[in-house]
Write a structure and sequence with these properties.
The protein is of the alpha/beta class. 24% of the residues lie in helices and 17% in strands. The protein is built from nine helices and ten strands. The chain binds alpha-D-glucopyranuronic acid. The site of alpha-D-glucopyranuronic acid has 7 residues, from loops.
Length: 430
């Protein structure tokens, strides 16, 4: 028996009686709630020096910066400032897209002056019937902009493409056009008065472990440096950095309301949207879809994917310092509820899927609950329940949550909740 007393009573929900830690160095994947180990979450409202945070000012000036720094140096890795040579090139703008209801705009973000270096290509769909600048959702896609809709005029990505989880330089074929459209409910987004902005994460950094020889990382190596240092950016940080560069462009687009930009991502890109929202407060709303380990799920629960497993399988995603915690989670100065807390007081939505046990749906909910006290301190409602909601029963305060029936995926059901949540917080429903 290994009960521990937790400071916040709401966190006692997570306690169970069996200690799982220490039975073996690499336990098999645990999907049994009764085998979740006893653990103690770091308190988001206690400074590293032990002082309690009891007012908003101390959160804003001391504890938030402290937590942000810990995630930068211990989890995802520090990001560089935007390159001085960065430039935006609108390569097309067509008001007759999608049967005339949207403007399709494509923009290349060049990171180097000679334009041969890595670049990020944005695809925008903006509703034509808008009265002024529109709020938008921005998120990376997994397989190229041309896969998010069957629209034959979306430029085709010829860069590295992954094949499943394999490391394959698998150039996309025309046949892949529109193949991810079920994950991007463009019709619902436009009908609700939002724009959609998406970009391909492989433009920023191809998703395999090559010691960061391609993508944007080499542009920022110091003289003599061969790869990012142990506290410098891995791929998730780079992908998040790319979303911030997308937002840099959106700030210049007169058709976009850049004060109402929601950042969204699924799975590894949900980890990315959370980190983008945490590290760049210009994102006004943050959505994590099935982000799991290293995203919204509490690491200390070790339910489904664990820190050790993710670091072993995807060594390039996080900074090297993160591996220190593979076998020693209690010493980790953060857990993922503190990542969620970094969004406060901005709205954040966490979505799980019932069959996505690998991502620990309950652990994703508990991270929202663990962030709740920070929202309350800042005078926001936070999460409206302490009880894990039933299937397809969304709850929404400043923290929103649902667990959808079905698998690891992004569906129209998910988009419907995100649109309602954004409507509420962006004042669209008033
Ligand atoms: C793997 C990985 C997850 C990740 C997912 C994805 O399953 O273990 O952490 O979220 O891939 O991005 O599709």
């Amino acid at each position: 028996m290994a009960f521990r007393t937790l400071a916040a009573p709401i966190l006692t929900l997570t306690l169970v009686s069996v200690t799982f830690l220490g039975l073996s160095a690499a336990p098999p994947t645990n999907y049994d709630e009764s085998k979740v180990p006893s653990y103690q979450l770091p308190d988001p409202l206690v400074l590293l020096n032990g002082d309690k945070v009891t007012d908003a000012k101390t959160w804003i000036t001391k504890r938030r910066p402290e937590i942000l720094e810990l995630f930068k140096t211990q989890v995802y890795g520090t990001m560089p400032a935007p390159p001085k040579a960065m430039s935006f090139q609108v390569t097309s703008s067509d008001k007759k897209a999608l049967g005339g209801k949207a403007t399709r705009r494509e923009v290349s973000i060049h990171f180097t002056a000679d334009k041969k270096g890595p670049r990020l290509d944005l695809l925008l769909y903006l509703p034509n019937d808008a009265d002024g600048p529109v709020p938008v959702f921005i998120g990376h896609n997994f397989r190229g902009n041309h896969t998010i809709n069957a629209d034959p005029k979306i430029s085709f990505n010829k860069g590295w493409m992954r094949n499943g989880n394999g490391v394959v330089n698998n150039q996309a074929t025309e046949a892949t056009r529109g193949t991810s459209s079920s994950r991007w409910d463009v019709d619902a987004i436009l009908a609700a008065g939002y724009g959609l902005v998406t970009c391909y994460y492989g433009d920023i950094d191809p998703d395999y472990d090559d010691d960061f020889q391609n993508g944007v990382h080499p542009l920022f190596l110091k003289a003599g440096q061969k790869k990012p240092g142990p506290s410098e950016w891995g791929s998730i940080s780079a992908w998040a950095w790319g979303l911030s560069r997308g937002l840099d462009y959106l700030e210049t687009d007169k058709d976009v309301d850049h004060k109402r930009v929601a950042v969204i991502g699924h799975s590894r890109l949900g980890k990315t949207s959370l980190w983008a929202g945490a590290s760049d407060p210009r994102f006004a709303l943050v959505i994590s879809n099935n982000s799991g380990c290293g995203g919204a799920a509490l690491s200390r629960r070790q339910f489904g994917e664990t820190v050790k497993v993710i670091n072993d399988r995807f060594p390039h995603w996080f900074c090297d310092n993160y591996t220190k915690y593979n076998e020693d989670l209690p010493s980790m100065p953060v857990d993922q509820h503190m990542l969620v807390a970094l969004m406060a007081p901005r709205p954040v939505y966490i979505a799980s899927a019932q069959e996505d046990r690998w991502a620990d749906p309950r652990g994703e909910f508990l991270a929202g609950l663990g962030a709740h006290p920070v929202y309350r301190l800042l005078g926001k409602p936070g999460l409206p329940t302490t009880k894990w909601p039933g299937i397809n029963q969304p709850v929404a305060g400043t923290i929103g949550y649902h667990v959808r029936s079905g698998q690891h995926d992004v569906t129209s059901y998910d988009w419907k909740q995100y649109i309602l949540f954004a409507d509420h917080h962006f004042g669209h429903d008033q």
